[in-house]
Amino acid sequence: MVHEVLSARGLVVRLGGRRAIDGLDLSVPAGSVYALLGGNGAGKTTTLNALLGFVVPTAGSVQVDGLDPIRDAAAARLRLAYLPENVALYPYLSGIENLQYFCALGGVRLADAAASALLDQAGLQGPSHTARVATYSKGMRQKVGLAIAHAKHAKAMLLDEPTSGLDPGAANDFAQRVRAAADAGMAVLMATHDLFNAKQVADRIGIMKEGRLVAEFDTHTVSHDDLERSYLVYTRAAPPRSDA
Asked: What's this model's pTM, rounded to 2 decimal places?
């Protein structure tokens, strides 16, 4: 039986008098990557924030490994790793020191050798481990974020526009690292505008429009051209809706 790690059931979130999320049903099992596509304001980031417990559902529910992220916030967040578009690290600490610091906040102490091994696993080259993060590219900072996720043994990872601003080579490398994390059993939910990256790394793709999931695809059966065509169709014209 496939274990569902991330889920939303009939999720409604009202922000500023409007439905930022409007009846969302979503499931991400262990060992899979789900990519959420959509334009700005479609509800992708709000979906991630609901799973993180940063916004309270107006109706419906979300769960993280069977836990409610509002009622069981601390336990749910222990199971989650979150990588925003720009990973916030301390610029005057090294990659190893940042990893050790963030792990210590979660009660995990890492020796230098263990921290270096995790950075290697995330794809950060050895000489960079002891360099100040102020010298890192965005792609290198993202890899430290991946190492933090591995270090805390997270069951799920939430990514918000992870390849924005990366060159094609760095984006491809990051996608491979995310795919490897999923293949090792992690559930990954990725909000993105990047159709190519979504097709490359995800098992399923959903398109959001005005808080609704308007289409879903299995990446193994949909072509890139069909995915792009559908994305343009759904994001150019909203389906009829009622806010009753």
From this structure: 0.89
Domain boundaries, the chain: 4-79+154-236
The 10s digit of each residue's pLDDT in 56-99 is 999 999 999 999 999 999 999 889 999 888 888 999 999 999 99
The helix/strand/coil state of 197 is helix
What are the CA-CA distances from residue 236 to residues 19, 150, 187, 199, 210 (Å)?
A: 19, 38, 30, 20, 11
In a 13 Å sphere around the CA of 123, the CA atoms on its Cβ side amount to 20
Nearest to 80 by CA among 3, 158, 142, 28: 158
Q: Which residue matches tokens 């491979």?
A: 176
How far from 222 is each of 115, 190, 200, 234, CA to CA, in Å? 39, 18, 12, 16
Which CATH superfamily includes the segment(s) 4-79+154-236? P-loop containing nucleotide triphosphate hydrolases (3.40.50.300)
Tell me the per-residue pLDDT of 124-173, one tens digit each, with 9 for 90 and over. Answer: 988 899 999 999 998 899 899 899 888 888 899 999 988 888 888 888 88
Sheet holding 18-29, edge to edge: 18-29, 4-15, 59-64
